[in-house]
Amino acid sequence: MWYFAWILGTLLACSFAIIAALALEHNESKNSD
Predict the structure, then answer these.
(1) CB neighbours (10 Å) of residue 25?
(2) pLDDT confidence of 12, banded at 50, 70, 90?
């Protein structure tokens, strides 16, 4: 079941990247205000 761990890790990495991008965008808009 290695593919299950691989898919889970990929989804985690993708969600982390999306959350980080959203947080960065939020911080930038907060600072420019």
Answers:
(1) 10
(2) very high
